[in-house]
Amino acid sequence: FDYLGLQTLYDRYFLHVRKTRIELPQSFFMRVAMGLTLNEIDREARAIEFYEVLSSFDFMSSTPTLFNSGTLRSQLSSCYLTTVPDDLDGIYESIKENALLSKFAGGLGNDWTRVRALGSHIKGTNGESQGVVPFLKVVNDTAVAVNQGGKRKGAVCTYLETWHLDIEEFLELRKNTGDDRRRTHDMNTANWIPDLFMRRVMEKGEWTLLSPSDAPDLHDKFGTDFEKAYLAYEDKARRGEIKPSRTVQAADLWRKMLTMLFETGHPWITFKDACNVRSPQQHAGVVHSSNLCTEITLNTSDTETAVCNLGSVNLLQHLKDGPNGKEIDHDKLKRTISTAMRMLDNVIDINYYAVKKARDSNLRHRPVGLGVMSFQDSLYALRIPYASKEAVEFADRSMEAICYYAYWASTELARERGKYSSYKGSLWDQ
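Given the sequence above, the corresponding structure tokens read:
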């Protein structure tokens, strides 16, 4: 460790009793390793195996795993993805779940597309909705109030589809001007964009904004199914059968998205159809959003909160000297990934779940995210310029190897522990 690394460990990661640290770096790694072996038959051997990949920096678990492994409430997962329903009880239950998950160091990705837009009719009171934005202000302040175990700030990202009638105000949430009651300075935002919108932008066509209370099935559709349903709702809106609704130039809305992205860094650009088409779990549900870091796409619903179980392979540690310079050490990479996949699978069973919907989803689908770090360092070691064709080719080769070894390790785990519950019908099954 260098000085900054030790200081970060001291400030955030070491266990403490009333601010007195009771760990050193290697005992910290051993705590994490031992905490991940609680369900293993040969605990001691596995603990040593896990400790060695951590202490050598061959693999690193996610921050919540490092924070909480081996503690009484071992919340080990990085992010949670939720879908917010369009009723008051459901909205505030979702905000409560945000608070509980953030309390134990979980990051949050919320899909708010189903919540009705400003001016929409409310049957129960015969009134009009104030739209999504006032609730997002509550979400923002909740993330500030409930930090992640006292170790880092609460973190949440809100997703909204581009056909939502509140999209234009949503784009301005991070601006430093305007009514501060309708601004969220601490929360991340992201656009969830269907392919049809991008085609309208390229064709310089019009785009119809709707309230999800008037188009309730659009939220659960993607691809051609979404396009057919959306076109039908557009026809209704033109005939005046859907109110409120509004038509804008798609290119103008896209320009505003990019302007806000350049000015505030938000909302991020994410693509609904691309995420769903590539989802191996299409049979189990629709991907309605990504997470805080936009690296995970998992299906969510009223009964399931998706969970990210993450860790990263240190690619630099898996290079060796070859006849023509540095090259990937495939034998070591395979061993590391085999251990890493086992650690990530153990996270799912050992994890403390503050919300039942998260537990149900995680145990049913058992998703894991094996990432990569030190990619640029590896390019430097290989003497490959970052912005070069050779860098792209190395990325392809290294990611292909990592994927292959991860699939192999997952297959071996399935042979030992059985298939996950929703395997039947998935793309893996096909």
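The domain at 79-306 is CATH 3.20.70.20 (Anaerobic Ribonucleotide-triphosphate Reductase Large Chain). Try to locate this feature in the token string yourself.
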